[in-house]
């Protein structure tokens, strides 16, 4: 990544997209390290994190992360996820944040030199082009090393720089939590037919 010490930088994190990319690579994002890393690369103006939340749930697994981000240097942008039924009759949730990301990035473009977009969504190609026309450099962070790849080819070609998330894992990642050993899950050691050596 090419950054200059006086670069005014803004991070735009598509939360669901980044989570899926990191999960596909087998690690979790350490958001404290992520913020610290980009603070060393220039003047960090803003770090936006976008996610949809399911309201009226007793417990949401993302709620602790959202609360932590909100108190630790991130500008949180959320909206309520909408429930729908898919073609197989299963309940699903939809919470696309593309418009929110586009509006915020265009509004901030005249105040920054460099955008770092954490998303591989090809729908952002035109947004990246519009921001570049305002003189802003754009780095896209996503991955081609997951199965399936998470980064759109059109978005990668449009960006000034593309950084594979796998290459940042040692800097901003922590190992994904491994499943509990079988004896903790209630299965006796040695059960399950595996010959352990």
What would a concise description of this structure say?
The protein contains seven helices and ten strands. The protein is an alpha/beta fold and 197 residues long.
Layout of SSEs?
Elements: E1 8-14, H1 15-25, E2 27-29, H2 31-39, E3 43-53, H3 63-71, E4 75-80, E5 82-85, E6 91-94, H4 98-108, E7 114-118, H5 125-132, E8 137-142, H6 153-158, E9 161-164, H7 165-172, E10 173-175
Parallel strand pairs: 1-3, 1-7, 3-4, 7-8, 8-9
Antiparallel strand pairs: 2-10, 5-6
Question: How would you describe the overall organization of this protein?
Answer:
The chain has 197 residues and is an alpha/beta fold. It has one domain: 3-Layer(aba) Sandwich (Rossmann fold). The chain contains 7 helices and 10 strands. Strands 4-3-1-7-8-9 form a 6-stranded parallel beta sheet, sandwiched between helices. Strand 3, helix 3 and strand 4 form a beta-alpha-beta unit. The longest helix is centred in the first third of the chain and has 11 residues. The C terminus is likely disordered.
DSSP strand count: 10
Query: N-to-C terminal Cα separation, in Å?
Result: 45 Å
The number of helices is 7
Structural class label:
alpha/beta
Morphology: globular
pLDDT under 50 segments (min length 5)? Answer: 182-197
- What is the third-level CATH name, the topology? Rossmann fold
CATH class: Alpha Beta
Order of helices and strands: EHEHEHEEEHEHEHEHE
Overall mean pLDDT stands at: 86
Relative helix content: 25-40%
Query: Structurally, how many domains make up the residues?
Result: 1
Percent of residues in β-strands:
25-35%
Query: Can you list the strand order of the major beta sheet?
Result: 4-3-1-7-8-9
CA radius of gyration is 19 Å
CATH homologous superfamily identity: 5'-nuclease
Q: What is the annotated CATH architecture?
A: 3-Layer(aba) Sandwich
Largest sheet properties: 6 strands, parallel
């Amino acid at each position: 990544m090419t950054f200059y010490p006086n670069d005014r930088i803004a991070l735009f994190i598509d939360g669901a997209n980044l989570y899926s990319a990191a999960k596909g690579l087998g690690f979790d994002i350490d958001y404290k390290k992520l913020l610290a890393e980009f603070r060393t690369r220039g003047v960090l103006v803003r770090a936006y994190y976008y996610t949809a939340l399911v309201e009226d749930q007793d417990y949401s697994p993302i709620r602790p992360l959202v609360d932590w981000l909100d108190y630790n240097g991130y500008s949180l942008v959320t909206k309520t996820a909408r429930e729908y039924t898919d073609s197989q009759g299963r309940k699903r949730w939809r919470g696309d944040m593309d418009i929110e990301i586009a509006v915020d990035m265009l509004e901030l473009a005249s105040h920054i030199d460099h955008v770092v977009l954490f998303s591989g969504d090809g729908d952002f190609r035109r947004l990246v082009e519009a921001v570049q026309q305002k003189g802003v450099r754009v780095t896209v962070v996503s991955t081609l090393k997951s199965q399936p790849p998470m980064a759109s080819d059109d978005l990668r070609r449009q960006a000034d720089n593309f950084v594979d998330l796998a290459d940042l894992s040692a800097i901003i990642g922590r190992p994904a939590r491994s499943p509990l050993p079988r004896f903790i899950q209630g299965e006796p050691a040695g059960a399950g037919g595996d010959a352990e050596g």
